[in-house]
Design a protein that fits this description.
Layout: H1 36-46, E1 59-68, E2 71-72, E3 75-76, H2 84-87, E4 92-101, E5 116-124, E6 127-134, H3 147-154, H4 165-172, H5 179-185, E7 200-201, E8 206-209, E9 215-224, H6 233-240, H7 246-256, E10 262-271, E11 297-306, H8 311-316, E12 329-331, H9 335-351, H10 427-439, H11 442-456, H12 461-474, H13 476-486, H14 490-494
Antiparallel strand pairs: 1-4, 1-11, 2-3, 4-5, 5-6, 7-9, 8-9, 8-12, 9-10, 10-11
Helix pairs in contact: 1-9, 3-4, 5-10, 10-12, 11-13, 12-13
Region (Disordered): 1-27, 382-405, 495-522
Keywords: Heme, Hydrogen peroxide, Iron, Metal-binding, Oxidoreductase, Peroxidase
Family: Belongs to the catalase family.
């Protein structure tokens, strides 16, 4: 961030180095969806003239800080990124971390079987950085256009107002990439014991960019120093008898007594290439990067040490967006990340208001200056240079001006036909799922099968048969155990044709090995 008070920034406090052009594929090519600077600018302008979250409604949060080690593995962090928040040692960057469940309403039980949101706002010296992910390191779908369908299928039936298993599996049966997440979430890993004893992950693939403009692909992970603890269905049911908010209470009480939870931030790094040699697409957020090939490299430590002073003003009004990045961290072409970048911030403008970034919990702690004006619930007039009459750019009359460009900018070469594409690497939809099933301890596998059997018994026969077909192609024992437990005809399931519109799954499932690295659940 420049010390010049006349430097134009975004509402997040990021310097604006080009206020004249959209980000596009070539000079005459289409604009890209991750035009965050443009999206922030135009969507605020759209609202200049003048609700409970749809997902992640049930949540709790805490303040804390992040301190970088200054290294990534055995290398200086500056080799990979120029982001000061990751390269400077001895600096404690303030953070606000919100935990949540995904599907349930605001007062739903925290014992629900559901992924847990893990959203961090870093108040860096160069503007805010939001990292919005979950605890399971994968997601159900790999293309953002399917997100509304997925949430509709997982939410309560619009007629009965109940979450119906058949709706969930009706969606899943048509999306084999969801099998990996289903196997995670229907095991004990789907019910973390509390928020302090669970992992966090970016899920999506990002890029780290150094000061020479060289990029690498990366994923972020947070490993709890307290260890990992999960619950079986029976343990969760027992807790829910007495407390529907046990995880929020546990986090609050721990911080109040000085038992401050801590996570180690790690990154996995991969060359910024297509990686045709891998059986999966590294941009596919339904897949994990094998840790024997792409190890978790420590980057820094994150500590939570202060509870919110007002839950509504902070926890409920906190607004996160995957497009909120700092220099040195950039987007990949992960289709879910691209879609989330538009959706998340636009949702906050609708839910909290056009000026949600003026709220103290969302505002950057570094200086910022924009030409944005007015809109619903404006709290202040953004400073706009030395001449308050000038709220536009460029100007020769003392208005804001663009920040200087860096000496070396990251530029990605892109060429190709504009169209709609699906991943061709679909064998890993079954390979990684089967490998995860084989990696479970016996008690984890037993709990997984019991949960799936109960669900299958609530589904129509056609859904039962197709789901067993999927499970069997992930691992023969997986499909056999579900079929036998639920009383489903295994041979009829195996005889089903390939799923229409999808390539045949790879039959050679026995050779895949799971490299997720987690066997610590209790």
């Amino acid at each position: 961030m420049s010390d010049d008070k006349n430097t134009l920034t975004t509402r997040q406090g990021h310097p604006v180095r080009d206020n004249q052009s959209l980000r596009s594929v070539g000079e005459r090519g289409p604009a890209t969806l991750e035009n965050y600077q443009f999206i922030e600018k135009i969507t605020h302008f759209d609202r200049e003239r003048v609700p409970e979250r749809v997902v992640h409604a049930r949540g709790t949060a805490a303040h804390g800080w992040f301190e970088a080690y200054g290294t990534i593995g055995d290398e200086p962090a500056s080799r990979y990124t120029c982001a000061k928040v990751l390269t400077r040692t001895g600096v404690k960057t303030p953070v606000f971390l919100r935990f949540s469940t995904v599907i349930g309403a605001k007062e739903s039980p925290e014992t629900a079987r559901d992924p847990r949101g893990f959203a961090i706002k870093f108040y860096t010296e160069d503007g805010n950085w939001d990292l919005v992910g979950n605890n399971l390191k994968v997601f159900f779908i790999r293309d953002a256009i399917k997100f509304p369908d997925m949430i509709h299928a997982f939410k309560p039936d619009p007629i009965t107002n109940r979450q119906e298993p058949w709706r969930f599996y009706d969606f899943v049966q048509h999306h084999p990439e969801a099998l990996h997440m289903v196997t995670w979430v229907k095991s004990p890993w789907g019910i973390p014991a509390d928020y302090r004893h669970m992992q966090g992950s970016s899920v999506n693939t990002y890029k780290l960019v150094n000061d020479q403009g060289v990029a690498v692909l990366c994923k972020f992970s947070f490993e709890p120093k307290q260890g990992i603890r999960n619950l079986t269905s029976e343990q969760a049911a027992e807790i829910q008898k007495y407390d529907v908010g046990h995880a929020s209470r546990d986090l609050y009480d721990a911080i109040e007594r000085g038992d401050h939870p801590e996570w180690e931030m790690c990154v996995q790094i991969m060359a910024d290439e297509a990686h045709d040699e891998l059986p999966f697409d590294p941009l596919d957020d339904t897949k994990r990067w094998p840790e024997d090939q792409f190890p978790l490299l420590p980057v820094g430590r994150l500590v939570l040490d202060r509870n919110p002073s007002n839950v509504f003003a902070e926890t409920e009004q906190a607004a996160f967006g995957t497009g909120v990045l700092v220099e040195g961290i950039d987007f990949s072409d992960d289709k879910m990340l691209q879609g989330r970048t538009l959706s998340y911030s636009d949702t906050q403008r609708y839910r909290v208001g056009a000026n949600y970034l003026q709220l103290p919990i969302n505002a950057p702690k570094c200086p910022y200056a924009t030409n944005q004006r007015d809109g619903q619930m404006a709290l202040q007039v953004d400073r706009s240079g030395s001449n308050p009459h000038v709220n536009y750019e460029p100007s020769s009359q003392g208005g804001l001006r663009e920040a200087p460009r860096p000496q070396h900018e990251y530029r990605q070469w892109i060429e190709g036909h504009l169209g709609r594409y699906q991943s061709r690497k679909t064998a890993a939809d079954y390979q990684q799922t089967g490998a995860r099933y084989r990696s479970f301890e016996d008690w984890e596998r037993d709990d997984l099968i019991a949960n799936l059997v109960a669900d299958m018994q609530a589904c129509p026969e056609d859904i039962q048969l197709r789901m067993v077909w999927h499970f069997w192609h992930c691992d023969p024992d997986y499909g056999t155990q579900v079929a036998q437990g639920a009383g489903i005809d295994l041979e009829r399931a195996k005889a089903l044709p390939n799923l229409p519109g999808h390539p045949a799954p790879n039959e050679d499932v026995a050779e895949a090995t799971y490299q997720g690295g987690e066997r610590e659940s209790r």
